[in-house]
Design goal:
By secondary structure, the protein is mainly alpha-helical. It has helices spanning 77-83, 86-95, 101-112, 119-126, 134-148, 158-184, 197-206, 217-230, 237-246, 252-264, 271-282, 288-296, 317-333, 339-351, 353-357, 365-374, 382-402, and strands at residues 5-10, 15-22, 25-26, 61-64, 69-72, 75-76. It is globular and about 80 Å long. The model has no long low-confidence stretch (mean pLDDT 95). Bound molecules: acetyl coenzyme *A. Acetyl coenzyme *A is lined by residues 267-269, 271, 295, 303-310, 358, 360, 363-365.
């Protein structure tokens, strides 16, 4: 009869072991019982970059990478992108259910009343060089927020936790907008709490010299859809960074700053910036074959940025939604001339044996940069546009980790490959 166990024979000792299988996993700690003798530490699992290791149980986001499925709390991303708003999705992620009308109003009002930052934060941001990267500014400033809210250390208290989560979601657009204004040498625009979350952000970024500036509703909608698509993505690099740092029970500002640092990298959220730079470098459709050739030959470690994903081995469902959103944005802004290059790049890559055999498809970052560029955002601001909506994902995952009785401080093992005990040699005797 079938049993939910794994029978293992250790050929070193001929001993047999039964390991329990639960949720398609064995517990790595059970491997420790497999020993060659009393002095043996026990077997470990070696898994650099967590290719096949579940680090937590989570009820927030579901991904089926082979089928291209992404769901937040069970709701398909396509439906949420079409019918919901970023704040409603944020509520859903944080609370597990879609809000009632009243709950949504209360939640919106709570977020709206926390959009302001302490005036000292402005001075703090002024200290950055004129050309500081907005992600460096964002990460440092979010880390600095912990010094403004020392009570945030009380991570075991639900009310305290929820207040910091609200603050982080509410203040992130303000901080991102301030970092942009700083890099442009423009005065900061304070939040306008009469505006919605995304419209307010756009206004803080774009408005100059008039109180009448109004974001185009189609662009507000498109950016809000992009925010929904980026809100969470289960145990990705930045979320794992947030969980790992948060597992030390540090405050959520410090943990979120770790998430921002991870997102900054070109293999993660920094890819949207890298895609745009790549499209600019290619410059013309006629240069695509030569570029693809270099990628395939791994010339100078060149990659087709915006392609490939650790989990999706089929089309990234977010990329599909973004491709549709492109049309609506370009109707307002005019077509981004680089769209033609992107579409042709995708067409060629999707029939090329190199990409097909490695299951490399466009990911969320492949088309998002084109929209951001068409909307007039500078390239180095793109990753901040990812960090704003991902904040709800980071803090929700952080809270799930803090309240999970099975979690402890994250502390992996290693396989030691260095020198063992040797005697110290005084400097004058070293050859
Ligand atoms: N262009 C060309 N070749 C690629 C690409 C790419 N974008 N991505 C992977 N490959 C190749 C690798 O060189 C490797 O080839 P090999 O088998 O000949 O050695 C093979 O495909 C497998 O790739 P891995 O690097 O092992 O895949 P991994 O799961 O570790 O990496 C990652 C995933 C980091 C996303 C990778 O595909 C990549 O670097 N893509 C470009 C950057 C990017 O778009 N990142 C955004 C990801 S989405 C997000 O974070 C929001």
């Amino acid at each position: 009869m079938a049993q939910d166990t794994l029978s293992v024979t250790d050929n070193r000792t001929d001993k047999k072991y039964e390991l329990k299988i639960e949720n398609g996993c064995i517990r790595a700690i059970d491997l420790r019982t497999i020993k060659t003798g009393a002095d043996d530490f026990g077997l470990m699992a070696y898994d650099p970059a967590f290719l096949n290791t579940a680090n937590c149980k989570s009820a927030i986001t579901f991904i089926d990478g082979d089928k291209g499925i992404l769901e937040y709390r069970g709701y398909p991303i396509e439906q949420l992108a079409e019918k919901s708003t970023h704040l409603e999705v944020s509520y859903l992620l944080m609370n597990g259910e879609l809000p009632t009308k009243q709950q949504l109003e209360d939640y919106t009002s709570k977020i709206t009343t926390h959009t302001y930052v302490h005036e000292n934060i402005k001075q703090f941001m002024d200290g950055f060089r004129y050309d500081a990267h907005p992600m460096s500014m964002l990460g440092s400033t979010v880390a600095a927020l912990s010094s403004f809210y020392p009570e945030a250390k009380n991570v075991k208290n639900k009310d305290v936790r929820r207040l910091q989560m609200t603050r982080l979601i509410a203040k992130m657009p303000t901080l991102a907008a301030f970092s942009h204004r700083h890099s442009q040498g423009l005065p900061y625009i304070y939040p306008n709490n009469d505006l919605g979350y995304t419209e307010n952000f756009l206004t803080m970024v774009k408005s100059i010299g008039t109180t009448k500036w109004k974001a185009h509703p189609a662009l507000v909608k498109a950016l809000d859809i992009l925010f929904i698509l980026h809100a969470d993505h289960e145990q990705n690099c930045s979320t794992t960074a947030t969980r790992v740092v948060g597992s030390s029970e540090v405050d959520p500002y410090s943990a979120t700053a770790a998430g921002i640092a991870a997102l900054y990298g070109p293999l993660h959220g920094g890819a949207n910036e890298a895609v745009l730079r790549m499209l600019r470098e290619i410059g013309d459709v006629k240069h695509i074959p030569e570029f693809i050739k270099k990628v395939k030959e791994k010339d100078g470690d060149k990659k087709l940025m915006g392609f490939g994903h650790r989990v999706y081995k089929n089309y990234d469902p977010r990329a599909k939604v973004i491709k549709q959103a492109c049309d609506e944005v370009f109707e307002v802004t005019g077509k981004n001339p680089r769209l033609e290059i992107a579409v042709e790049l995708e067409r060629i890559a999707l029939q090329d044996e190199y990409f097909v055999s490695r299951k490399l498809y466009p990911n969320v970052d492949f088309y998002s940069g084109l929209i951001y560029e068409a909307m007039g955002f500078p390239v180095d601001f793109f990753t901040s546009l990812f960090a704003i909506p991902r904040t709800v994902g980071w803090v929700t995952q952080w809270e799930e980790m803090i309240t999970d009785g099975e979690q402890k401080i994250a502390r992996p093992r290693q396989i030691f490959t260095g020198q063992r005990k040797r005697d110290y040699v005084p400097v004058e005797k070293r050859g």
